[in-house]
């Protein structure tokens, strides 16, 4: 008895344990990353497979199609849930807003170890032959018992990435290379010796072939995938139904149209695959030399590289087949493939922390953080410099799709869905049509049964009403506007690799701009220098190439502290460095390969002054010789270079003057950073005020510093020393002032954007005050606006993080001359307490990258408030630009990003509409690329986006009306057991609908941006009112015509003997129609109701086409669309002709009957009245009254600050309120988060922060995790 009780208890416990396991089974892959997904384990279930097989057979294959379209249903229908450890199939779901499902089969691979970076014991004995693929076979031949030593490694592949089972984490994980948790010291000490052949083969099992394989699918595979699209399946069903109902012509037309659509789609998709394959395949397979652990040099194919291999970089350069970290030597690399900027970049070897006793500490290697030491896949190594006997070596850290280039290709191969809201509304639109079709389906069945129609006819006609309601040309019609917009963009020099984003660009309401090269000229002019002597600034000097400064340390720093190099004899590099070097008039010489081979060290780059710097040298031959000797003897060799880092905001070089024993360190960079690394006694007391003086005027200021190095630092020690050991205790030398002029078109473009209520934000790596000055100069910040600087400080010495608020000094107000521009279409608050005048003073936040990072970490609740009015973000690192774009998107802004493609790649990809000003068309870093480096492309892109978006809405509305008009006609005719004829359907669907749809999409964009934005979705008040009103109008006039014709004195049930026109005698009629009696009796197409409805409905299609083809303010008026006007005029003329001047041939072809001429005139009156009512309803009632009154606010909510109104305006507002109440549009909370937040801040007395106050953050409590913010005065 006791045993039974214990047994039952154990079963209960097991049941609860299983329940708990199910609850805790929710696991993730790529946790906290962009591609984070939920993962569930399943195993095949035999009885479910049997049931599904039976279901597929019984449904005629439809269930199989349904399971093909829905992967989650497929897995759940054929498998049962199990643990991830034992699963055979995994089900994946993205955690973003799209929640997309994927499934993958789990495979098993025999291996000697569980991790590729471990060294299993038996590897030395069993992998010596290198044939790791045949592990199982060779083991079975030698000893069956040895199979037990192999570990079954389980993995699956998703989007070209392998996920291996991680037993310690009890989940699947990506096997990463040496870029994950590898210390810089271990890269030199453990991984720099290379791999044995056996270890190489073992790792290759896990990492696979090193290639970015873009497989071009066969035409057959693409065809099957395209044909199995739900829409084409529905078309197939429709065609079969029409053929059964003997609608042969229309069925054939739809088949031809579908074939054309499929062929064009296949051609486009395959062309994109081929282009991407060719781009990736170029130089992807090359022969490379690797260094094995026994110091042997082996030549292998690049496809055989694995993380851990030591690759030798050839002196004449190569295309990198992988991501590798430089261990020795220096490389000059063109990274335009990744960044879009063709400026050569110097890569130096990764420092070894273990060699520096004074090093700050070891750190984990990261390709982004250590990108100055990393050679990325796909980049072009132009040339190398090296020690003799110590070749340029690089450690392979990532291969295949894990590389930077691989990730870019994956983002193209597997893009995230875009414009989700628009397509979600499209599905709701189709669903509503299906509901309407269902009503018609039921009505047809009931009506047919009551009229005792044969069952065969009932089935066909009831299904036919469904095919009539869902238009077959909808997908082609929807893409037409985007395709035309893409062509227009290409004509104006804007290239697009993601056409679906064109629609999103029509909704942009905020654009971020980089400053240098985007808002301002790319080139900088040297305005002058301010040298420092004895910790005091000297007067500004314009000439820097004077003889008195020739041997000064200031000029030596300008001559050496740069990353310039000669490529094919031409000096190239960063534009700022070029301008600075050209200003001093020096010459740069680089060592040749022969010179380098003669010395046992890296031959330095040498700089020296040119002879032209000595004008006195022309006076006498002796003096000329002496000065020539002087100029040749004074040379400076650049021994070591620490390239510029956007994170550190500085660069440094170690140089030696010819003949000097001690070396010198020169440093340049952001003034604030350089001053902090200098001895305080060398920095002038008025440093900040002088810097502020120049930055306020919009100058680009660079600081220089110098330091004499210790004599014990030898050449070889310098090559391996840490830059932190050099960049300290420097002597401050002064400032270089560069003038960065605004581009001529910048102010006008920003003014256009402001007038269109599009916010503009500056994101730059430059100084904050310089950025604020440029923002004021270009009109981003108006003269009367306030600028609040947020200076955030991280926690230190037990003190919490805090933000110091202070107001930047505004420039002199010139309100009389400043243009009346609304710089932000969001609610604003008066900064001043004075309400005497109605002028609204707006405020803008400005902050630097360090403050932004602190706010993101310690003041998360303040981030939405700050980005709501943040206008200037200075000293921003590349990843911080991306974080800013994300922060803006989190408050429901549609964000555009415009940059030069260098440091903006992440932000360009993340933004809704990223446009690069790079000249390289092949750049894959941005959805849009402008051929001309001008921000004038931004309003052009937004205008085309708005035009494409409105075109999409117009097409949707027209296709909805087309379906409903035809649905009304057929439903009315079904009531008398009639229908439209085959040729009538053909004329409507091909001659009217297709021609109109493809020509109405040709309207070009409106010539300027307007303040009103298009609706953000299909399901919005204006669109629904427009569609419903036109549906009601068409229903009323068709029903009126249908009923009125029956009231005519000549009306009777039409027979071949009927003669309402009195033009034929009975004999002629009888003979003319004797051959068609059977056909007419069967389908009852020829009757007065059919003829009346055919004429009225045909005109209605054209009426709604004209009504919906709106022009201003987003598109050019329809009368400028020549093809559309021509098509509509021709169709109108044809319809008027066949209605008012009947032709026996046309009437016979269209199966029309003769009606009295008086009735034809009455139909004409019905059509004219219908047109007048439709135009008045759309253009007067909706556009002029309801849009401006009820729908005056955009769906995103454009609420403005309420200001006292004059009496007449008060009366108008009362009318507005009444109509809003009448239509149910009361004051509602806006849906956009930024608008809702703006409304809250209007009534917040503590916002914006007052000047000279501090906001302090406390540690978040464990309960709610929110940050407590205290404001201190």
Automatic annotation (TrEMBL):
Q: Which domain of life is it from?
A: Eukaryota
* Principal cellular location given in the protein's record: membrane
Q: Where is the P-type ATPase A domain?
A: 288-412
Any single GO molecular-function term of the entry would be: ATP binding
Key word Transmembrane present = yes
InterPro entries assigned to the protein according to its UniProt record, in alphabetical order: ATPase_P-typ_cation-transptr_N, ATPase_P-typ_cyto_dom_N, ATPase_P-typ_P_site, ATPase_P-typ_TM_dom_sf, ATPase_P-typ_transduc_dom_A_sf, ATPase_P-type_domA, HAD-like_sf, HAD_sf
User: In this record, what's one Pfam family?
Assistant: E1-E2_ATPase
Q: How does it sit in the membrane?
A: Multi-pass membrane protein
Matches recorded under Gene3D superfamilies: Calcium-transporting ATPase, cytoplasmic domain N, Calcium-transporting ATPase, cytoplasmic transduction domain A, Calcium-transporting ATPase, transmembrane domain, HAD superfamily/HAD-like
GO CC term (a single one): late endosome membrane
Which residues does the UniProt record annotate as the domain Cation-transporting P-type ATPase N-terminal?
A: 184-242
- Which top EC class applies here? translocase
Q: Where are the transmembrane segments?
A: 49-70, 227-243, 249-269, 426-445, 465-485, 947-965, 985-1006, 1018-1045, 1091-1109, 1121-1141, 1161-1186
UniProt domain P5B-type ATPase N-terminal: residue ranges: 33-166
Q: What is its EC number?
A: 7.6.2.16
Q: Where in the cell is it found?
A: Early endosome membrane; Late endosome membrane; Recycling endosome membrane
Reaction catalyzed: putrescine(out) + ATP + H2O = putrescine(in) + ADP + phosphate + H(+)
Entry keywords, A to Z? ATP-binding, Endosome, Magnesium, Membrane, Metal-binding, Nucleotide-binding, Phosphoprotein, Translocase, Transmembrane, Transmembrane helix
Function, please?
ATP-driven pump involved in endocytosis-dependent polyamine transport. Uses ATP as an energy source to transfer polyamine precursor putrescine from the endosomal compartment to the cytosol.
The record's section on NCBIfam families has: ATPase_P-type, P-ATPase-V
Which family does this protein fall into?
Answer: Belongs to the cation transport ATPase (P-type) (TC 3.A.3) family. Type V subfamily.
Query: Any idea what this protein is called?
Result: Polyamine-transporting ATPase 13A3
Annotated source species: Gallus gallus
Protein encoded by which gene? ATP13A3
């Amino acid at each position: 008895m006791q045993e039974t009780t214990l047994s039952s208890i154990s079963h209960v416990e097991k049941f609860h344990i299983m329940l708990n396991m199910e609850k805790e089974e929710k696991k993730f892959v790529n946790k906290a990353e962009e591609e984070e997904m939920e993962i569930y384990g399943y195993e095949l279930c035999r009885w479910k497979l049997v049931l599904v097989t039976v279901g597929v057979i019984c449904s005629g294959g439809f269930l199989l199609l349904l399971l093909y379209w829905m992967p989650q249903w497929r897995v759940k229908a054929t498998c049962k849930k199990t643990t991830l450890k034992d699963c055979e199939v995994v089900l994946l779901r993205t955690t973003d807003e799209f929640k997309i499902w994927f499934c993958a089969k789990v495979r098993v691979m025999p291996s000697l170890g569980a991790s590729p970076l471990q060294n299993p014991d038996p590897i030395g004995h069993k992998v010596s032959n290198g044939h790791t693929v045949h592990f199982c076979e060779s083991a079975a031949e030698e000893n069956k018992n040895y199979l037990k030593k192999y570990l079954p490694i389980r993995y699956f592949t998703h989007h070209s990435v392998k996920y291996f089972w991680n037993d310690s984490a009890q989940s699947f994980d990506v096997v990463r290379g040496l870029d994950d948790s590898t210390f810089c010291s271990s890269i030199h000490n453990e991984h720099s010796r290379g791999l044995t052949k056996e270890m190489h083969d073992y790792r290759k099992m896990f990492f696979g072939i090193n290639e970015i394989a873009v497989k071009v699918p066969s035409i057959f595979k693409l065809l099957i995938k395209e044909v199995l699209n739900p829409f084409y399946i529905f078309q197939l069903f429709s065609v079969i139904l029409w053929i059964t109902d003997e609608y042969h012509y229309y069925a054939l037309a739809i088949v031809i149209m579908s074939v054309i659509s499929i062929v064009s789609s296949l051609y486009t998709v395959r062309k994109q695959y081929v282009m991407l394959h060719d781009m990736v395949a170029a130089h992807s397979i090359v022969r490379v030399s690797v260094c094995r652990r026994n110091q042997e040099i082996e030549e292998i194919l690049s496809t055989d590289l694995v993380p851990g291999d030591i690759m030798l970089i050839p002196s004449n350069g190569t295309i990198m087949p992988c991501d590798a970290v430089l261990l020795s030597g220096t490389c000059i690399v063109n990274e335009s493939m990744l960044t879009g900027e063709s400026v050569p970049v110097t890569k130096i070897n990764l420092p070894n922390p273990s060699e520096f006793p004074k090093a700050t500490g070891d750190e984990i290697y990261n390709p982004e953080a250590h990108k100055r030491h990393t050679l990325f896949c796909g980049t072009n190594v132009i040339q190398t410099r090296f020690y003799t006997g110590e070749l340029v070596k690089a450690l392979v850290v990532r291969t295949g799709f894990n590389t930077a280039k691989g990730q870019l290709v994956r983002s193209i191969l597997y893009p995230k869905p875009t414009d989700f809201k628009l397509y979600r509304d499209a599905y709701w639109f189709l669903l509503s049509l299906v509901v309407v079709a269902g009503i018609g389906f039921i009505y047809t069945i009931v009506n047919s049964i009551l009229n005792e129609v044969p069952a065969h006819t009932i089935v066909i006609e009831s299904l036919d009403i469904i095919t009539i309601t869902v238009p077959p040309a909808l997908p082609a019609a929807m893409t037409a506007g985007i395709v035309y917009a893409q062509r227009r963009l290409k004509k104006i020099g804007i290239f697009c690799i993601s056409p679906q984003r064109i629609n999103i660009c029509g909704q942009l309401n905020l654009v971020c701009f980089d400053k240098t090269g985007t808002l301002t000229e790319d080139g900088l002019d040297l305005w002058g220098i301010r040298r420092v002597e004895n910790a005091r600034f000297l007067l500004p000097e314009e000439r820097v190439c004077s003889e008195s400064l020739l041997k000064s340390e200031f000029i030596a720093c300008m001559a050496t502290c740069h990353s310039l190099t000669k490529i094919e004899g031409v000096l190239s590099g960063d534009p700022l460095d070029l301008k600075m070097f050209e200003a001093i008039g020096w010459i740069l010489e680089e060592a040749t390969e022969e010179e380098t081979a003669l010395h046992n060290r890296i031959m330095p780059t040498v700089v020296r002054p040119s002879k032209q710097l000595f004008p006195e040298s022309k006076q006498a031959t002796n003096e000329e010789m002496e000065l020539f000797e002087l100029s040749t003897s004074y040379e400076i060799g650049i021994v070591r270079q620490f390239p510029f880092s956007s994170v550190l905001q500085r660069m440094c070089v170690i140089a030696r003057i010819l003949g000097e024993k001690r070396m010198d360190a020169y440093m340049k960079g952001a003034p604030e950073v350089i001053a902090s690394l200098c001895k305080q006694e060398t920095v002038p007391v008025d440093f900040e005020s002088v810097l502020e003086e120049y930055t306020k005027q919009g100058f680009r200021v660079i600081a220089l510093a110098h330091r004499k190095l210790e004599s014990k630092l030898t050449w070889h020690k310098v090559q391996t020393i840490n830059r932190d050991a050099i960049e300290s205790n420097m002597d401050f030398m002064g400032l270089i002032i560069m003038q960065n002029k605004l581009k001529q078109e910048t102010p006008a473009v920003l003014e256009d954007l402001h007038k269109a209520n599009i916010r503009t934000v500056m994101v730059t790596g430059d100084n904050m005050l310089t950025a604020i000055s440029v923002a004021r100069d270009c009109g981003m910040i108006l003269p009367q606006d306030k600028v609040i600087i947020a200076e955030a400080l991280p926690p230190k010495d037990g003190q919490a993080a805090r933000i110091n608020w202070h107001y930047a000094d505004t420039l002199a107000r010139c309100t009389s001359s400043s243009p009346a521009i609304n710089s932000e279409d969001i609610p604003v608050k008066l900064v001043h307490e004075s309400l005497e005048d109605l002028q609204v003073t707006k405020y803008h936040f400005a902050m630097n990258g360090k403050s932004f990072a602190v706010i993101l970490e310690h003041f998360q609740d303040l981030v939405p408030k700050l980005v709501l009015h943040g206008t200037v973000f200075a000293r921003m690192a590349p990843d911080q630009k991306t974080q800013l774009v994300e922060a803006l998107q989190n408050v429901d802004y549609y964000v555009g990003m415009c940059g030069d493609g260098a440091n903006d790649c992440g932000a360009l990809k993340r933004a809704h509409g990223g446009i690069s000003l790079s000249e390289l068309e092949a750049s894959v870093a941005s959805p849009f690329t402008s051929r001309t480096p001008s921000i004038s492309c931004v309003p052009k892109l937004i205008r085309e986006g708005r035009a494409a978006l409105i075109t999409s809405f117009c097409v949707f509305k027209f296709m909805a009306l087309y379906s409903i008009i035809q649905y009304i006609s057929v439903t009315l005719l079904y009531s008398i057991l009639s229908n439209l004829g085959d040729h009538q359907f053909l004329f409507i669907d091909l001659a009217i609908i297709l021609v109109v749809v493809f020509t109405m999409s040709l309207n070009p964009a409106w010539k300027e941006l307007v303040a009103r934005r298009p609706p953000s979705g299909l399901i919005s008040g204006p669109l629904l009112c427009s569609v419903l009103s036109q549906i009601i109008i068409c229903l009323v006039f068709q029903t009126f015509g249908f009923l009125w014709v029956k009231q005519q004195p000549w009306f009777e049930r039409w027979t071949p003997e009927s003669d309402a026109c009195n033009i034929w005698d009975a004999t002629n009629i009888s003979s003319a129609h004797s051959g068609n009696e059977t056909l007419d009796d069967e389908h009852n197409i020829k009757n007065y109701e059919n003829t009346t409805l055919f004429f009225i409905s045909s005109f209605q299609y054209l009426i709604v086409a004209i009504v919906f083809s709106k022009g201003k303010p987003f598109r050019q008026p329809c009368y400028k669309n020549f093809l559309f006007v021509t098509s509509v005029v021709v169709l109108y003329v044809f319809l008027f002709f066949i209605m008012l001047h009947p032709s026996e041939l046309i009437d016979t072809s269209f199966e029309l009957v003769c009606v009295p001429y008086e009735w034809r005139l009455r139909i004409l009156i019905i059509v004219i009245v219908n047109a007048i009512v439709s135009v008045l309803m759309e253009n007067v009632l909706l556009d002029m009254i309801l849009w401006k009154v009820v729908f005056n606010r955009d769906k995103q909510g454009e609420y403005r600050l309420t200001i006292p109104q004059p009496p007449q305006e008060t009366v108008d507002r009362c009318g507005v309120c009444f109509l809003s109440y009448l239509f149910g549009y009361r004051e509602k909370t806006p849906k956009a988060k930024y608008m809702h937040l703006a409304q809250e801040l209007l009534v917040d007395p503590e916002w914006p922060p007052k000047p000279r106050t501090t906001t302090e953050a406390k540690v978040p409590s464990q309960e709610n995790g929110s940050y407590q913010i205290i404001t201190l005065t």
